[in-house]
């Protein structure tokens, strides 16, 4: 009876808990890596709402050239070119943010009423997050060219954004006149066609009335 | 996306061998902005204020506007349209980082006056185009709705004209001119439908 009560002990190495912890941590890290990769892969599958961001691509190319130690001073873009390129990138970021802000209520009400699915609403939310990150990155880059420029940068970018929008509308006036003219001509022709058909129908009807035996 | 950019150190301009129209437009925008920053002289583009609004250009634009109005008063409507068009082109040449509000005010003045001149020269489509642009920029005044209504009326869009007059009257119910034009327009709609009061 006494022999049964004595707990059995086993000698284990001091490394056993350490190995246990290492295995546990490795599993956790592996899970985390796989999970993150899958999340990134899923994010990559989502189509962006906007088209290609050319100002961003152009700025990245110019920045690479600007920081390339193998290029001579003549081959590197001038600092003002870099500032203009960054400003253009900022203008595009503001334009996109404004577009997203404008459509926020539409997306929300459509989603709440079940008219769009989770995928589209997720696409919108990811785009919003992406724009926030883009603006943060622009703000960081501002400091590379002039200390404290960030404070004024977005005010200037907003002004440029509005002025460019106004210019786009002025420049489109002539093309718009042509389009409007074409549309109205088309409608006039259609109305004329309908009137001609009506006239023919009326003539036929009156002919039948005059000659009921026919 | 593969984009190739070439930089010319002499004129500080960017170019590309690509034929992509959108890319070309973006490059043009960038080159314009670069030259404006260089010509401005300051280290970075300044914040837009009424003080740094280009005053020389403002004087020239004002002169063109007064010239256009003068021609209009002398019944030289073609000349008036021409002067307003040049003025609009000049507004387009302002630096992009100049005050947007100032540019918008100038532009609205020119578009309104060019609409009047176009209505007088019976170019109703151009008049409609100008004033429609102005209304889409939230310049919602009874007079602007009257202008678009008149243009629509003479283009034969009577229903659209009626809507414009009614919207103008929503802003100013006692506007005599709008009331008269609406009455004429309603008569015309009845006539079109083979009816009368």
Automatic annotation (TrEMBL), chain A:
> What domain of life does the native source organism fall in?
Eukaryota
Q: What is this protein called?
A: Translocation protein Sec66p
Q: Which organism is it from?
A: [Candida] jaroonii
TrEMBL record, chain B:
Judging by the UniProt lineage, the source's domain of life is Eukaryota
- What is the protein's name according to its record? Translocation protein Sec72p
């Amino acid at each position: 009876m006494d022999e049964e009560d004595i707990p059995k002990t086993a000698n284990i190495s001091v490394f056993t808990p350490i190995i246990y912890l290492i295995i546990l941590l490795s599993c956790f890290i592996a899970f985390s890596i796989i999970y993150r990769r899958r999340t990134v892969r899923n994010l990559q599958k989502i189509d962006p709402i906007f088209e290609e961001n050319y100002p961003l691509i152009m700025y990245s190319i110019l920045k690479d050239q600007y920081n390339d130690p193998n290029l001579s001073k003549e081959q590197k873009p001038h600092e003002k070119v870099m500032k203009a390129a960054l400003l253009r990138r900022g203008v595009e970021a503001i334009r996109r943010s404004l577009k997203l802000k404008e459509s926020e209520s539409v997306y929300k009400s459509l989603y709440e009423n079940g008219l769009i699915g989770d995928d589209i609403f997720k696409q919108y939310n990811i785009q919003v997050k992406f724009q926030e990150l883009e603006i943060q990155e622009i703000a960081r880059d501002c400091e590379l060219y002039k200390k404290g420029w960030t404070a004024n940068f977005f005010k200037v970018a907003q002004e440029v954004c509005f002025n460019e929008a106004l210019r786009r509308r002025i420049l489109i006036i002539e093309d718009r006149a042509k389009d409007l003219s074409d549309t109205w001509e088309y409608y006039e022709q259609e109305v004329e066609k309908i009137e001609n058909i009506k006239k023919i129908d009326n003539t036929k009807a009156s002919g039948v009335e005059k000659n009921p035996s026919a | 996306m593969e984009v190739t950019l070439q930089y010319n150190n002499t004129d500080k301009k960017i170019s590309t061998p690509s034929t992509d129209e959108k890319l070309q437009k973006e490059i043009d925008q960038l080159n314009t902005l670069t030259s404006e920053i260089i010509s401005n002289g300051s280290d970075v583009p300044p914040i837009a204020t009424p003080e740094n609004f280009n005053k020389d250009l403002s004087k020239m634009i004002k002169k063109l506007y007064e010239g256009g109005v003068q021609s209009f008063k002398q019944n030289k409507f073609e000349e008036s349209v021409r002067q307003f068009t040049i003025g609009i082109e000049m507004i387009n040449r302002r630096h992009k980082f100049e005050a947007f509000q100032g540019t918008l005010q100038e532009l609205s003045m020119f578009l309104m006056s060019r609409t009047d001149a176009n209505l007088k020269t019976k170019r109703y489509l151009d008049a409609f185009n100008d004033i429609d642009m102005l209304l889409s920029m939230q310049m919602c005044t009874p007079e602007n709705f009257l202008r678009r209504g008149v243009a629509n009326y003479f283009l034969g869009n009577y229903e659209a004209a009626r809507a414009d007059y009614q919207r103008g009257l929503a802003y100013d119910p006692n506007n005599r001119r709008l009331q008269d034009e609406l009455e004429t327009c309603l008569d015309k709609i009845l006539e079109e439908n083979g009816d009368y009061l």
